[in-house]
Design goal:
The complex is a heterodimer of chains A (366) and B (396). With 366 residues, chain A is α+β, with helices and mostly antiparallel strands. Chain A is built from 17 helices and 17 strands. Chain A starts with a strand and ends with a helix. By secondary structure, chain B is mainly α. Chain B is 74% helix and 3% strand. Chain B has 17 helices and 3 strands. A 3-stranded antiparallel β-sheet of chain B has the order 2-1-3. Chain B is flat and about 75 Å long. The two termini of chain B are 35 Å apart. Classes of the chains: A alpha+beta (366), B mainly alpha (396). Chains A and B meet through helix 2 and helix 4 of A and helix 14 and helix 15 of B.
């Protein structure tokens, strides 16, 4: 979709990007990462001709970008700038609809598209469309910035540190939201960041740059498990193994459950419900109500339903927040396990339905 | 307790209440202690001051005092609904004026021919006190817009009616006006024409120049100092400086003379005022375009705007309020300076001022000065409301 061949850029003799060759495939999320001043933003800006390369070729969709007029090229490529850059004199809807307007879309079609995008980013059009940028929080403004870039449904999205200026909680929230939206839309995304966790979380490819050169470009898993040299190893840090866990979701590794004979499990205790446990050796029996919603657990070690060694039953005060969601990253799940000081946790759906069990061993094997 | 928290600034000794108290006390002092009018044997002699009781016919003095007392209700909402206090404040003006006009007529019946009744310090102070109270009350959100505008309109129309029905005809200021009615409107046209011409010319030169300065930041240190120097030349000196070169030009280019251009008159006035207006216009245009954030510009470029679209959709709308503010400053400044241009024969309200100064006739000076102030205030309001329109919604 986008390819750079031997691209070189110098600002007044100081080289910013040196002999860069990079191929970004359709539907890929390529995270350009590296220390400040490594040339990652310059590389991004050359793709939509915000910056012109000194030498080398850049192709978008097989066409050399130098042959397309800059402003026409940019209308085909979504662009999210570092500082968001919403137009302060336009409403949220006008901001989102700016590229459709430049492309001379029919006004009602543009507005409809704008409202769809607001909904896609969980912003109520009725509340937000007539607001002005100064009335928005940082996180809301950032979402509008991304929605604006998506307005004309471009195939390619360039993002320059899109979540950089947000507080950590909002940032994580938006990263997860963006990841799920991207999964739905399947755009080709180039994202500049200096946040390793962000690159590992969002990227299907991570391209690490230093001093204008591309050091390694690979999938996040390979970058973390097979760093090409010391610089890569140091950049991803001593906890790079942990960072890998941010890529994996609980639902991908959790263990399935089978139902046990309830009477045998309770063996005379004044409690009732359905009992579930993973294939042996199970350490904990999870207890649900008749509809399968988690209620509590039996602390014991039933080898099988016949030879159950039942422990005491414990009711959970808030099963929903005790359990993990399938959409939790393994990194967060591991944190929970360490926090609680226990070897396993139940996995529940939003409705409280018991879904599976995650054990420390599952994480180690991942 | 709840009422106290609902009325911040009125019950407590802070905020608006202090300003209102000051204005109200000022009005009281003006009514009780100062001379309302001056009676003079003729228009040039100094006069004898007369206070409220000496100048007005009964029962006006006690009536006006009571009305001012009611206006004091604006100091606390407990005493009086605020809109009623505003009514008392605003309607005080036409009542005071018509009472003064009536009093003046009576004072002049026994006086020798040529005697004049001029407005005294008390009346001016009173009008100022009303202005202070009314403008403070206008900012108070507790008075509904309906009352604010309705009462202002009522007081304004009543005042105009008092004037139009001849209720003020015996006052010296109006006598001066009635002697020069035709010339008054002619000078007003002159004044407005010179101002409009110079501000438009300056806008036509200054806005593109300011935009150019913002495009080439290096030129800023060359252009603005020149305009600053022009601004420091006293207006009278600049008018004078232009007389000789213009006269020379007219001599060698007779076509100019046919256009009505002379070394004196409106031509040098318009040229000088155009030069004066350049600084605020260029400076504000430059500042306006400079204040458009680089973020918005980069976003606009990145979204795929052409240079012209960027200017039309982003830079111009964001810079416009600041640019218009430059025109506002230039207009107000030029209305004032046009008065001086009367000295080189350009006409305008300044003609009355200088004529009055020559004759030591203070009411004739006022006949020139008051409309000049009025024009400046009106121009300010018109531009300001235009600016508010361009600000609506978006930029704070």
């Amino acid at each position: 979709m986008i390819s750079l061949k031997n691209v070189h850029k110098a600002f007044e003799a100081a080289p910013a990007v040196r002999d860069l060759t990079l191929e970004i495939g359709l539907g890929e999320v390529c995270c350009l990462i590296g220390p400040s001043g490594c040339g990652k933003t310059t590389t991004l800006k050359m793709m939509n001709r915000m910056v012109e390369p000194s030498s080398g070729d850049i192709f978008v969709d097989g066409q050399p970008v130098g042959e397309i007029k800059p402003h026409l090229l940019r209308r085909k490529i979504g662009y999210v700038i570092q500082s968001i850059g919403l137009f302060p004199h336009m409403t949220v809807l006008q901001n989102i609809c700016i590229v459709p307007r430049l492309l001379k879309w029919d006004e009602s079609r543009a507005k409809k598209r704008g409202r769809e995008l607001l909904e896609l980013f969980s912003l109520d059009p009725g509340v937000f469309e007539a607001k002005y940028p100064h009335e928005l929080s940082g996180g809301q403004a950032q979402r509008i910035g991304v929605a604006r870039a998506l307005a004309a449904d471009p195939d390619i999205l360039l993002m320059d540190e899109p979540f950089g200026a947000l507080d950590p909680i909002t940032r994580t929230h938006l990263q997860v939201q963006f990841a799920s939206i991207q999964k739905e839309l399947g755009k080709t995304v180039v994202l500049v960041t200096h946040d390793v966790d962000e690159a590992v979380l969002l990227g299907s490819t991570v391209a690490l740059m230093n001093e204008g050169e591309l050091i390694q470009s690979d999938s996040p898993e390979r970058m973390l498990s097979r760093p090409k040299n010391d610089f890569v190893r140091r950049f991803f840090g001593a906890d790079r193994a942990l960072k890998r866990l941010s890529r994996l979701m609980v639902r991908d590794v959790m263990g399935g459950l089978r139902e046990l004979d309830a009477a045998a499990c309770f063996s005379g205790q004044p409690a009732s419900g359905r009992c579930f446990a993973v294939e042996e050796p199970a350490q904990i029996v999870w207890v649900t109500d008749e509809t399968g919603r988690l209620r509590g657990f039996l602390d014991g070690c039933p080898q099988s339903s016949e030879t159950a060694q039942p422990g005491g039953y414990r009711d959970l005060e808030d099963p929903l927040s005790y359990g993990l969601s399938g959409e939790t990253t393994l990194r967060a799940a591991l944190t929970r396990l360490i926090e609680e000081g226990i070897p396993c946790l139940p996995v529940v759906q939003e409705t409280g339905q018991l879904q599976g069990e995650l054990r420390l061993g599952d994480i180690l094997r991942a | 307790m709840k009422r106290l928290t609902m009325l911040p600034g009125v019950m407590t000794w802070s905020g608006v209440a202090k300003v209102r108290l000051l204005g109200w006390l000022l009005g009281l002092v003006a009514l009780v202690l100062l001379d309302l009018v001056l009676v003079r044997e003729n228009r040039l002699l100094p006069g004898n001051g007369l206070n409220l009781w000496q100048a007005l016919v009964q029962p006006w003095p006690p009536v006006l005092l009571v009305l001012w007392g009611l206006a004091g209700g604006c100091l606390s909402q407990r005493a009086w609904p605020l809109w009623a206090a505003l009514a008392a404040v605003l309607l005080f003006v036409p009542l005071l004026l018509s009472a003064t006009g009536q009093g003046a007529a009576l004072l002049l019946t026994d006086a020798p021919r040529g005697a004049r009744v001029s407005l005294g310090a008390g009346l001016w102070t009173m009008l100022f006190a009303v202005f202070v109270l009314a403008s403070d009350l206008f900012r108070d959100a507790r008075i509904r817009v309906f009352w604010r505008n309705g009462l202002l309109l009522a007081a304004g129309l009543w005042t105009i009616w008092v004037f139009a029905s001849g209720g003020l005809d015996q006052l010296s200021l109006i006598v001066e006006l009635s002697h020069r009615q035709d010339r008054f409107f002619q000078e007003m046209t002159n004044h407005l024409g010179i101002t409009a011409l110079s501000v438009s010319a300056s806008g036509l030169i200054g806005i593109p120049l300011g935009f150019a300065v913002s495009c080439f930041p290096g030129s800023r240190s060359k252009v603005l100092p020149v305009l600053n120097v022009i601004q420091t030349i006293p207006s009278l000196a600049l008018f004078g400086l232009l007389i000789a070169p213009l006269a020379l030009m007219v001599r060698y280019l007779p076509v100019l003379e046919r256009l009505g251009i002379q070394g004196i008159g409106w031509a040098p006035a318009v040229i000088a005022l155009t030069l004066y207006a350049l600084l605020p216009i260029v400076h504000n245009t430059y500042a306006g375009f400079d204040s458009v954030g680089s973020n918005a510009v980069e976003a606009g470029r990145g979204m795929g705007m052409s240079r012209l679209q960027l200017l039309r959709l982003v830079e111009l709308p964001l810079a416009l309020p600041v640019v218009l503010n430059g025109l506002r400053i230039a207009s107000v400044q030029n209305i004032g300076n046009t008065a001086v241009a009367a000295l080189i024969g350009a006409g305008g309200f300044g003609a009355f001022i200088f004529q009055g100064m020559g004759q030591a006739a203070s009411d004739l000076i006022l006949l020139g000065a008051l409309p000049t102030i009025g024009l400046a205030v009106a121009a300010d309001r018109v531009w300001q409301s235009l600016i508010d329109l361009t600000l609506a919604g978006g930029s704070q």
